[in-house]
Amino acid sequence: MTQLFKNYLWHSELFNCQSNDLTQFEQYLSTQVSRLKLQEKPLGFIDESNQHYPLSLYQTAHIDSGKPSILVCAGFHGEESAGPWGLISALEQLNPSILEKINLSILPLVNPSGFSIGNRLNLFQQNPNRGFVHQSGQVVSNSHTSVEGLILQQSMTQLLSAAQHGILTCHEDVLLHDTYLYALESHALPRPLSYQLRDCLGRYFPIADDGEIDECPVKDGIIFNHFDSSFESALFQSGSQIAFCTETPGQQVFDQRVLANRDAITLFINHFVNDNCQ
Ligand SMILES: [Zn+2]
Description:
This protein is of the alpha/beta class. Helices cover 29% and strands 26% of the residues. Helix 1 (22-35) runs parallel beside helix 2 and helix 2 packs across helix 8 (254-273). Zinc ion binds next to loops. Zinc ion is lined by residues 76-77, 80, 129, 171. Pfam families: AstE_AspA_cat. Keywords: Hydrolase, Metal-binding, Zinc.
């Protein structure tokens, strides 16, 4: 099949492997899943003749409805690999005692087939972050929904519960030198957490100038309350209290992007640990 997008690969000094090394990634993930006693919840498989990729959600062992439930996702787009590696890095420094205060769920790598070759799309040339259509209180598919999207939509009740108090999804913009984020909030203006996440990324990279990115207005490094058929938008419209999509710049050094993602994820988790959620 002809590829619609270029493959992007980088070397990571931090992990001593290539950004698309799926075997290494799974080993690092497995180590953290064991250390933090996360439970794997298999959601489905992405299959084609000689390729077979599991898609799993991982959750803290004991879900307590009295604690904040948050979901951290990465790897929807396979070339945006500093997201998944940043999540590994955040898990490595996470103190297990934090998981006594929140219900943490993670989708560490939504598009493993794209990740394995550093391509945005999956092995069927589909975009895994499109085709989540919020309609009459439900998330339904359309002609753009990917295999991964269908798997996630089959588990939407579970994912919505996991993301009840918030969702952070870690993306990258491979064409840019600057950073920005999408924030979805039920307020007229961004709340402090949006600016804190922006500043977290801004410690590593210049913050995007005011203007437009992908036809969305950016102000102070934030694209605010932009609704599309992305996973995060559908979850927010379905009841998640707050949703963020961070965008680290693919034109910058890979490991710096990993560290920026690590810090953003850590800040997001700590926000709920500190019981600031409404
Ligand atoms: Zn993306």
